[in-house]
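User: tokens in, sequence out, please.
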């Protein structure tokens, strides 16, 4: 038998994951010189590629198949090498991680001690920690003459247009049985969350008048695809974030006509919502949710979510303060998650379909309080961006935060290791913290400048 055939049989016998590891190792060797020097050209292309495709970041086990560990692990290795190299560059900004975010991560690690599935929890935690490397590189690139939007817009435009091409070429695969667009992702909600991000970024570029001939058409395409996804939660998140951004943009706009138009539109929308809520006998927020879900042909039970939330509430009562342990609940059909799933007439679910309920279940009230502290500091720093004259950065990051918080009402992306929206939120938190810190001069320099005699 020829030697090359023997080698091939040995490799094949070791299984597909070993073959993938060899290919990734070869890729790493060829990629390193160019990749380390140009992370802005591939970082988010890589991230969205493995986060959107069914085998990347959305596998049902959620804890990390071997394939998932290989793809994301390779990314973390590359990010670690880039960060080590940047330490030798005197022009590279010195970055740090906000202390409140480190405190949250410390608590998450501690909760693994009482998880029923410590190995699964530890794997998920390591995937979560790796995101800090991504966020530090993203912040470094944004602070070196770029913005977060400039890092995102080209990669998301590429994957969005790939979804358009698939919808046109293979509609029987791109649309599910209910007629909702999922493109090449595993579920229409995944595609809807991606379209939410696209809509937020392209709206930000449009409001900041960045290449309007390109960004205005991309915004309309993103909005059309968001609607076609029939992801009511993502549409609701976009409405809330856009509502807030337009109020801020209109109120502080130097163009009086634009300010009047935006404020008049906001007032008209508020009056319409009030009339709708009165006619239907509901509170305005409930009326908004009902209006959006009705337009998407969704049931009043949010596609069975309410029954699941009731069961999760009964589970949370058993461990309200510290939770079951980070990443230690949705581990398949075993344990409490399996018993809960068997009580539903659909499923079995792999999440609670609410980020807040999932987080409350796994990290308890103490963990949720720490998360709230992270968000409060983030809002404070975003306000600092605005007061420092960095309006364009403020608009993007506040829109991302609002979209993230609203989207977690009926989708789970809160503290979810390789979930696209938790990646974006982590990058936003670290960038805003460092941008504000580096934009403001140190106190001693400020005092010296103030005391220096003027001539």
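Assistant: Sequence out:
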């Amino acid at each position: 038998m020829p030697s090359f055939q023997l080698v091939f049989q040995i490799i094949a016998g070791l299984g597909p994951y070993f073959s993938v590891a060899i290919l990734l190792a070869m890729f790493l060797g060829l990629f390193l010189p160019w990749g380390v020097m140009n992370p802005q050209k591939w970082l988010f292309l890589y991230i969205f590629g493995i986060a959107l495709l069914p085998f990347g970041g959305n596998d049902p086990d959620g804890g990390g198949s071997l394939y998932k560990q290989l793809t994301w692990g390779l990314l973390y290795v590359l990010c670690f090498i880039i960060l080590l190299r940047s330490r030798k560059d005197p022009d590279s900004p010195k970055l740090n991680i906000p202390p409140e975010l480190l405190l949250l991560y410390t608590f998450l690690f501690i909760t693994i001690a009482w998880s029923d599935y410590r190995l699964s929890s530890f794997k998920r935690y390591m995937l979560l920690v790796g995101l800090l490397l991504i966020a530090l590189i993203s912040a470094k690139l944004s602070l070196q003459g770029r913005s977060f939007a400039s890092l995102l817009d080209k990669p998301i435009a590429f994957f969005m247009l790939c979804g358009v091409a698939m919808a046109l070429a293979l509609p029987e695969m791109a649309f599910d049985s209910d007629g909702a667009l999922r493109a090449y992702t595993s579920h229409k909600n995944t595609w809807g969350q991606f379209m939410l991000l696209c809509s937020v970024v392209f709206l930000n570029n449009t409001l900041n008048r960045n290449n309007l001939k390109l960004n205005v058409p991309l915004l309309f395409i993103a909005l059309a695809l968001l609607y076609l996804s029939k992801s009511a939660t993502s549409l609701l998140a976009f409405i809330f974030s856009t509502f807030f951004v337009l109020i801020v943009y209109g109120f502080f706009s130097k163009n009086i006509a634009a300010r009047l138009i935006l404020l008049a539109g906001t007032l008209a929308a508020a009056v319409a919502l009030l009339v709708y809520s009165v006619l239907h006998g509901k509170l305005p927020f409930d009326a908004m949710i009902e209006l959006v879900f009705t337009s998407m042909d969704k049931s009043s039970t949010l596609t069975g979510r309410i029954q699941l939330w009731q069961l999760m509430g009964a589970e949370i009562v058993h461990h309200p303060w510290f939770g079951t342990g980070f990443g230690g609940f949705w581990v398949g059909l075993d344990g409490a998650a399996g018993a809960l799933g068997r009580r539903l007439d659909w499923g079995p679910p792999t999440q609670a379909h609410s980020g807040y309920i999932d987080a409350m279940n796994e990290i308890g009230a103490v963990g949720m309080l720490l998360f709230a502290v992270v968000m409060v500091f983030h809002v404070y720093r975003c306000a600092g961006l605005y007061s420092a004259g960095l309006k364009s950065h403020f608009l993007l990051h506040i829109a991302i935060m609002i979209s993230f918080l609203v989207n977690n009402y009926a989708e789970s992306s809160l503290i979810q290791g390789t979930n696209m929206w938790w990646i974006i939120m982590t990058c936003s938190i670290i960038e805003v913290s460092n941008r504000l810190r580096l934009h403001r001069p140190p106190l001693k320099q400020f005092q010296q400048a103030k005391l220096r005699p003027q001539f």
